[in-house]
Amino acid sequence: MEQLMRNFFLYLSKSKTLTKLARKYGLRFGAGRFVAGETIQQAVSVIKDLNKKGLSVTIDYLGEFIDTEAEANEMADNSIEAIRAIGSQALDSQLSLKMTSMGLDISDELVLNNMRRILDVAKENDVFVTIDMEDYERCGKTLEIFKKLRSEYDNVGTVIQSYLYRTVSDIEDLNQYSPNLRLVKGAYKESPEVAYPDKKDVDENLKKIIKMHLLNGNYTAVASHDDAMIEYTKHLVEEHNIPRDQFEFQMLYGIREERQLELVKEGYKMRVYVPYGTDWYGYFMRRLAERPANVAFVLKGTFGK
Ligand code: FDA
């Protein structure tokens, strides 16, 4: 049943028609629990609240199904606006973005152009930028773009997903760039030809790459709500005397807020991924796919009053 629901929401997340409808009608159906608002001003006010509680942030201007150059340029402009807001208000926040929103499906030249514009402003404002990882089809291309940018900039990182078979060799290959990586399980629907179908294998592989990347001496963001992954990391860093400024935990806005604060209290760096913008639909559907309890929450919020 859980697998069926997961597939259903992942299928819905790819609907262009529903994405457009959602854009038109604003944050609905409980999406506000996971999305900080539709404007940069709303996002800034959420970041300030989180920062006050000792939480660091990475913000993401949401955007999916970008298929014109003008849209990709506009997405880049919005990310630049976000970076300037972070810099001018001295917020404790990084930026996250997706290569498809920068024009990955249009041309490499467009993506590189937009990314260089963003990374230049980010550098001036001392803001770190993480390239989110999307579906398998785009993984190789995204990593190639990352490598190119990493050799020009030191304020850029990316994401590696433990559900892919290629992951361990990607970690090995990327090591020469000493990259700052966010390690996750993976959020898209992938075929068993390219990704572990069994959750147990995905979990084991996440532990494996956390260990590899940390012991390689690289900065590691462990992005998971799973206590097993968090406890594993805590033991690992203790065992190998890895300093606290070489790693951090990350969670999504609206998920396990108490656990986030507990980790801050324990002295760990904890970063919250805060999405905002009118294109909340696909992001919201992927969160529903991850956890049936989120669906119950949404139904209660929508119908249960
Ligand atoms: P998983 O979903 O396997 O859950 C394991 C356990 O965690 C649960 O059994 C429960 O104990 C606990 N848990 C989970 N959710 C909970 C909740 N709401 N309340 C209480 N307990 C809960 N993916 C991707 O493909 N590309 C990307 O770029 C990113 N980026 C990214 C950034 C950040 C900051 C995060 C946290 C995640 C991503 N992801 C991602 C998503 C990631 O790949 C994955 O889909 C989700 O994090 C869900 O997997 P978890 O590791 O959190 O645990």
UniProtKB/TrEMBL annotation:
Pathway: Amino-acid degradation; L-proline degradation into L-glutamate; L-glutamate from L-proline: step 1/2. Its cofactor is FAD. Keywords: FAD, Flavoprotein, Nucleotide-binding, Oxidoreductase, Proline metabolism. It comes from the Bacteria. Pfam families: Pro_dh. Its EC number is 1.5.5.2. Substrate binds at residues 98, 286-287. PANTHER family: PROLINE DEHYDROGENASE 1, MITOCHONDRIAL, PROLINE OXIDASE. This is proline dehydrogenase. It comes from Sutcliffiella cohnii.
